Amino acid sequence: EMQLVESGGGLVQPGGSLRLSCAASGLTFSTYWMSWVRQAPGKGLEWVANIKEDGSEEYYVDSVKGRFTISRDNAKKSVYLEMSSVRAEDTGVYYCARERTTSGWYLDYWGQGTLVTVSS
Amino acid sequence: QFVLTQPPSVSEAPRQRVTISCSGSTSNIGNNGVNWYLQFPGKPPKLLIYYDNLLPSGVSDRFSGSRSGTSASLAISGLQSEDEAVYFCAAWDERLNGPVFGGGTKLIVL
Protein backbone atom coordinates (compact mmCIF):
# COMPACT_ATOMS: atom_id res chain seq x y z
CA GLU A 1 0.00 0.00 0.00
CA MET A 2 1.32 3.38 -0.93
CA GLN A 3 2.00 5.80 1.90
CA LEU A 4 3.33 9.33 2.24
CA VAL A 5 4.25 10.52 5.72
CA GLU A 6 5.16 14.13 6.40
CA SER A 7 7.10 15.36 9.39
CA GLY A 8 9.00 18.40 10.58
CA GLY A 9 6.16 20.82 11.16
CA GLY A 10 5.88 22.95 14.27
CA LEU A 11 5.98 26.44 15.67
CA VAL A 12 8.52 28.80 14.11
CA GLN A 13 9.08 32.50 14.58
CA PRO A 14 8.68 34.93 11.68
CA GLY A 15 11.93 35.08 9.75
CA GLY A 16 12.93 31.64 10.97
CA SER A 17 13.54 28.36 9.16
CA LEU A 18 12.04 24.90 9.11
CA ARG A 19 12.63 21.72 7.13
CA LEU A 20 9.74 19.48 6.22
CA SER A 21 10.21 15.88 5.19
CA CYS A 22 8.00 13.43 3.38
CA ALA A 23 8.84 9.74 3.41
CA ALA A 24 7.30 7.51 0.77
CA SER A 25 6.67 3.78 0.81
CA GLY A 26 4.90 1.34 -1.44
CA LEU A 27 5.78 3.08 -4.71
CA THR A 28 8.65 3.41 -7.15
CA PHE A 29 9.49 6.82 -5.76
CA SER A 30 12.18 7.75 -8.27
CA THR A 31 9.78 7.62 -11.23
CA TYR A 32 7.40 10.35 -10.09
CA TRP A 33 7.34 14.09 -9.77
CA MET A 34 6.47 15.13 -6.24
CA SER A 35 4.64 18.22 -5.01
CA TRP A 36 4.10 20.15 -1.81
CA VAL A 37 0.65 21.71 -1.34
CA ARG A 38 -0.38 23.81 1.63
CA GLN A 39 -3.65 24.78 3.24
CA ALA A 40 -4.03 27.76 5.54
CA PRO A 41 -6.42 27.20 8.48
CA GLY A 42 -9.98 27.05 7.19
CA LYS A 43 -8.88 27.96 3.68
CA GLY A 44 -8.37 26.35 0.30
CA LEU A 45 -5.44 24.52 -1.23
CA GLU A 46 -2.35 26.19 -2.67
CA TRP A 47 0.33 24.41 -4.65
CA VAL A 48 3.77 25.36 -3.30
CA ALA A 49 6.44 23.54 -5.27
CA ASN A 50 7.28 20.45 -7.25
CA ILE A 51 10.36 18.52 -8.27
CA LYS A 52 11.17 16.26 -11.17
CA GLU A 53 11.83 12.54 -10.77
CA ASP A 54 15.61 12.92 -10.78
CA GLY A 55 15.64 16.27 -8.96
CA SER A 56 16.94 18.14 -12.00
CA GLU A 57 14.00 20.53 -12.22
CA GLU A 58 12.01 22.32 -9.56
CA TYR A 59 9.27 24.92 -9.68
CA TYR A 60 7.67 27.19 -7.12
CA VAL A 61 4.64 29.38 -6.63
CA ASP A 62 5.70 33.03 -6.79
CA SER A 63 4.99 33.70 -3.11
CA VAL A 64 7.72 31.31 -1.93
CA LYS A 65 10.37 31.78 -4.62
CA GLY A 66 13.73 32.58 -3.07
CA ARG A 67 12.56 31.48 0.38
CA PHE A 68 11.64 27.81 -0.01
CA THR A 69 13.67 25.01 -1.57
CA ILE A 70 12.35 21.62 -2.58
CA SER A 71 14.72 18.67 -2.83
CA ARG A 72 14.60 14.90 -2.85
CA ASP A 73 16.67 11.86 -2.01
CA ASN A 74 15.55 8.93 -4.12
CA ALA A 75 17.70 6.49 -2.16
CA LYS A 76 15.75 7.42 0.95
CA LYS A 77 12.45 7.76 -0.94
CA SER A 78 12.00 11.18 0.55
CA VAL A 79 11.17 14.69 -0.56
CA TYR A 80 11.94 17.78 1.48
CA LEU A 81 10.83 21.38 1.75
CA GLU A 82 13.34 23.77 3.24
CA MET A 83 11.50 26.87 4.43
CA SER A 84 13.36 30.05 5.33
CA SER A 85 12.42 33.67 6.02
CA VAL A 86 8.99 32.37 6.94
CA ARG A 87 6.04 34.69 7.31
CA ALA A 88 2.72 34.52 9.11
CA GLU A 89 1.01 33.77 5.80
CA ASP A 90 3.08 30.58 5.48
CA THR A 91 1.05 29.10 8.36
CA GLY A 92 -0.91 26.02 7.41
CA VAL A 93 -0.92 22.29 6.87
CA TYR A 94 1.68 21.18 4.35
CA TYR A 95 0.93 18.07 2.29
CA CYS A 96 3.25 16.18 0.04
CA ALA A 97 1.62 14.47 -2.90
CA ARG A 98 2.52 12.33 -5.88
CA GLU A 99 2.10 13.94 -9.27
CA ARG A 100 0.77 12.24 -12.33
CA THR A 101 0.97 13.65 -15.82
CA THR A 102 -0.08 10.67 -17.94
CA SER A 103 -3.60 12.05 -18.45
CA GLY A 104 -3.36 15.71 -17.71
CA TRP A 105 -1.88 16.90 -14.42
CA TYR A 106 -3.18 15.69 -11.07
CA LEU A 107 -2.15 14.57 -7.60
CA ASP A 108 -3.25 11.03 -6.91
CA TYR A 109 -1.83 10.30 -3.46
CA TRP A 110 -1.52 12.69 -0.54
CA GLY A 111 0.11 12.43 2.85
CA GLN A 112 -1.69 13.27 6.08
CA GLY A 113 0.03 16.64 6.29
CA THR A 114 2.20 18.44 8.83
CA LEU A 115 1.18 21.69 10.52
CA VAL A 116 3.44 24.71 10.32
CA THR A 117 2.62 27.66 12.56
CA VAL A 118 4.51 30.91 12.07
CA SER A 119 4.10 33.08 15.13
CA SER A 120 6.12 34.99 17.66
CA GLN B 1 -8.08 35.17 -4.51
CA PHE B 2 -8.09 31.71 -6.05
CA VAL B 3 -7.45 31.45 -9.76
CA LEU B 4 -10.34 29.03 -10.24
CA THR B 5 -13.78 30.14 -9.03
CA GLN B 6 -16.14 27.83 -7.17
CA PRO B 7 -19.33 28.60 -5.24
CA PRO B 8 -18.63 28.61 -1.47
CA SER B 9 -21.42 26.13 -0.81
CA VAL B 10 -24.17 24.10 -2.41
CA SER B 11 -26.95 22.13 -0.79
CA GLU B 12 -29.34 19.43 -1.87
CA ALA B 13 -31.52 16.73 -0.40
CA PRO B 14 -30.54 13.07 -0.10
CA ARG B 15 -31.00 10.92 -3.21
CA GLN B 16 -30.98 14.01 -5.43
CA ARG B 17 -28.33 15.21 -7.89
CA VAL B 18 -26.11 18.22 -7.36
CA THR B 19 -23.52 19.95 -9.51
CA ILE B 20 -20.54 22.05 -8.46
CA SER B 21 -19.11 24.51 -10.93
CA CYS B 22 -15.51 25.59 -11.47
CA SER B 23 -14.69 28.59 -13.64
CA GLY B 24 -11.29 29.49 -15.00
CA SER B 25 -9.64 30.91 -18.09
CA THR B 26 -7.95 29.88 -21.32
CA SER B 27 -4.60 29.49 -19.56
CA ASN B 28 -5.94 26.77 -17.26
CA ILE B 29 -9.31 25.06 -17.78
CA GLY B 30 -9.55 26.27 -21.35
CA ASN B 31 -6.55 24.21 -22.40
CA ASN B 32 -5.96 21.64 -19.68
CA GLY B 33 -7.80 18.84 -17.98
CA VAL B 34 -9.57 19.46 -14.69
CA ASN B 35 -9.34 17.33 -11.60
CA TRP B 36 -11.51 17.26 -8.51
CA TYR B 37 -10.71 16.44 -4.90
CA LEU B 38 -12.85 16.00 -1.83
CA GLN B 39 -11.76 16.72 1.69
CA PHE B 40 -13.34 15.77 4.99
CA PRO B 41 -12.56 17.87 8.07
CA GLY B 42 -9.12 17.16 9.44
CA LYS B 43 -8.26 14.84 6.56
CA PRO B 44 -6.07 15.25 3.47
CA PRO B 45 -7.65 15.81 0.07
CA LYS B 46 -8.56 12.74 -1.94
CA LEU B 47 -8.56 12.53 -5.73
CA LEU B 48 -12.10 12.15 -7.06
CA ILE B 49 -11.88 12.89 -10.79
CA TYR B 50 -8.93 13.45 -13.13
CA TYR B 51 -8.61 14.57 -16.72
CA ASP B 52 -12.12 16.04 -16.66
CA ASN B 53 -14.12 12.85 -16.23
CA LEU B 54 -11.95 9.88 -15.30
CA LEU B 55 -12.54 8.11 -12.01
CA PRO B 56 -9.64 6.63 -10.02
CA SER B 57 -10.04 3.07 -8.91
CA GLY B 58 -12.42 2.78 -5.98
CA VAL B 59 -14.33 6.01 -6.58
CA SER B 60 -18.09 5.58 -6.87
CA ASP B 61 -19.66 6.11 -10.30
CA ARG B 62 -22.14 8.45 -8.61
CA PHE B 63 -19.43 11.04 -9.26
CA SER B 64 -18.91 12.43 -12.76
CA GLY B 65 -17.12 15.38 -14.29
CA SER B 66 -17.28 17.47 -17.43
CA ARG B 67 -15.49 20.42 -19.00
CA SER B 68 -16.63 22.94 -21.60
CA GLY B 69 -14.69 26.00 -22.64
CA THR B 70 -13.22 27.61 -19.54
CA SER B 71 -15.57 25.93 -17.08
CA ALA B 72 -15.92 22.52 -15.52
CA SER B 73 -18.49 20.77 -13.39
CA LEU B 74 -18.62 17.98 -10.88
CA ALA B 75 -21.91 16.12 -10.58
CA ILE B 76 -22.90 13.87 -7.71
CA SER B 77 -25.99 11.74 -8.10
CA GLY B 78 -27.91 9.80 -5.47
CA LEU B 79 -26.68 12.13 -2.74
CA GLN B 80 -25.84 10.54 0.60
CA SER B 81 -25.14 12.17 3.94
CA GLU B 82 -21.55 10.90 3.77
CA ASP B 83 -20.99 13.02 0.67
CA GLU B 84 -20.90 16.09 2.90
CA ALA B 85 -17.39 17.43 2.40
CA VAL B 86 -15.49 20.22 0.71
CA TYR B 87 -14.83 19.75 -3.00
CA PHE B 88 -11.92 21.42 -4.81
CA CYS B 89 -11.23 21.72 -8.53
CA ALA B 90 -7.72 22.09 -9.95
CA ALA B 91 -5.99 22.43 -13.30
CA TRP B 92 -2.56 23.18 -14.73
CA ASP B 93 -2.09 26.84 -15.57
CA GLU B 94 0.15 27.52 -18.56
CA ARG B 95 0.61 31.22 -17.76
CA LEU B 96 1.66 30.58 -14.16
CA ASN B 97 3.51 27.37 -15.11
CA GLY B 98 2.01 25.54 -12.19
CA PRO B 99 -1.24 24.04 -10.95
CA VAL B 100 -4.04 26.19 -9.58
CA PHE B 101 -6.93 25.32 -7.30
CA GLY B 102 -10.42 26.61 -6.70
CA GLY B 103 -11.37 27.93 -3.28
CA GLY B 104 -13.47 24.88 -2.50
CA THR B 105 -17.20 24.23 -2.28
CA LYS B 106 -18.84 22.88 0.84
CA LEU B 107 -21.55 20.38 0.00
CA ILE B 108 -24.42 20.28 2.46
CA VAL B 109 -26.77 17.33 2.29
CA LEU B 110 -30.05 18.56 3.73
Describe what you observe in this structure.
The complex is a heterodimer of chains A (120) and B (110). Chain A is mainly beta and 120 residues long. Chain A has strands spanning 3-7, 10-12, 18-25, 34-39, 45-51, 58-60, 68-73, 78-83, 92-100, 106-110, 114-118. In chain A, a hairpin with a 6-residue loop joins strand 5 and strand 6. Chain A starts with a strand and ends with a strand. Chain B has 110 residues and is an all-beta fold. In chain B, strands 1, 3, 4, 7, 8 and 9 form a six-stranded mixed sheet that branches. Chain B has a three-stranded antiparallel sheet with strand order 2-6-5, with no helix packed on it. The model of chain B has no long low-confidence stretch (mean pLDDT 96).
Rg value of chain A: 14 Å
Major sheet summary line of chain A: 7 strands, mixed
Q: Give me the number of helical elements of chain B.
A: 0
- Low-confidence stretches of chain A are none
Strand count of chain A = 11
Q: So what's the oligomer here?
A: heterodimer
Estimate the helix proportion of chain A, in percent.
Answer: under 10%
Q: What is the share of helical residues of chain B?
A: under 10%
Structural class of chain A: mainly beta
Gap between N and C termini of chain B, in Å?
29 Å
How do the helices and strands follow one another from N- to C-terminus of chain A? EEEEEEEEEEE
The most extensive contact between chains is: A-B, 25 and 29 residues
Q: What is the CA-based Rg of chain B, rounded?
A: 13 Å
Q: Which regions of chain B contain 5 or more consecutive residues with pLDDT less than 50?
A: none
Taken from the alpha-carbon principal axes, the silhouette of chain B is: globular
Largest sheet of chain B: 6 strands, mixed
Work out the helix count of chain A: 0
* Mean pLDDT value of chain A: 96
Strand residue content of chain A: over 45%
The global form of chain A is: globular
Question: What structural category characterises the helix and strand content of chain B?
Answer: mainly beta
